[in-house]
Design goal:
Layout lengths: L5 E7 L5 E8 L2 E3 L6 E8 L26 E8 L4 H4 L3 H8 L21 E9 L1 E5 L4 E5 L3 E5 L4 E3 L6 E9 L7 H8 L2
Antiparallel strand pairs: 1-2, 3-4, 4-5, 5-11, 6-9, 6-11, 7-8, 7-10
């Protein structure tokens, strides 16, 4: 599957007329050890989001989680999993993603790809199929399936023989596993 993702961004000119600000192919990034290919389409650093910056808000390096009070839109292609990819060092992978691993009861990771982010994630399977593993369960998803994930520890594992493409929107959220007072205090702008 060709990974090229065309992104079109609209905005306004100086008179307030709606225009196309950007139209082109988004750069791709390959995650070492896993073969995951991602395209970062947009990032916001605030909520409500600014729409008057006139700049490419995805033109930066950022981990998997969204910025505090922000959001991320990305598309990821998950190739069929290999034994080599499943043997990747989980701590190194999590560090490269800017994520964490918090299994129930401090248990070791169920899978090398296990991670969690302090975010509400909307996942839309665009093509193929994939398994989403949780601490002790899993769900099979296929093209056309949607998931709302609320800060859960998980891993995306493609056990099929075709690439699976998923669009993700991640929105910063209050961590359900942190103390309520600390979480609410950190959520204040």
């Amino acid at each position: 599957m060709e990974h090229a993702i065309r992104r079109i961004v609209t905005g306004h000119d100086a008179s307030g007329k709606a225009i196309i600000e950007m139209d082109g192919i988004v750069p791709k990034k390959v995650r070492p050890g896993t073969g995951f290919v991602s395209s970062l389409l947009w990032v916001t650093d605030e909520s409500p989001a600014r729409m008057d910056l006139g700049q490419d808000r995805a033109a930066r390096t950022i981990g998997v989680p969204p910025p505090p009070h922000g959001s991320i839109l990305r598309v990821v292609d998950f190739p069929p999993v290999t034994a080599e990819a499943e043997s990747v060092d989980q701590k190194e992978l999590i560090a490269s993603m800017g994520a964490s691993h918090n299994a129930q009861g401090g248990q070791p990771a169920r899978h090398a790809f296990m991670h969690r982010t302090k975010s509400v994630d909307y996942a839309i399977v665009l093509q193929g199929e994939i398994d989403m593993l949780l601490d002790d369960s899993e769900v099979h998803m296929k093209a056309g399936d949607f998931m709302v994930q609320q800060g859960t520890n998980h891993a995306w594992v493609n056990r099929s023989d075709q690439v699976c493409r998923i669009a993700f929107v991640l929105i910063d959220a209050i961590d359900p596993l942190a103390g309520n007072a600390a979480s609410l205090a950190s959520a204040q702008p």
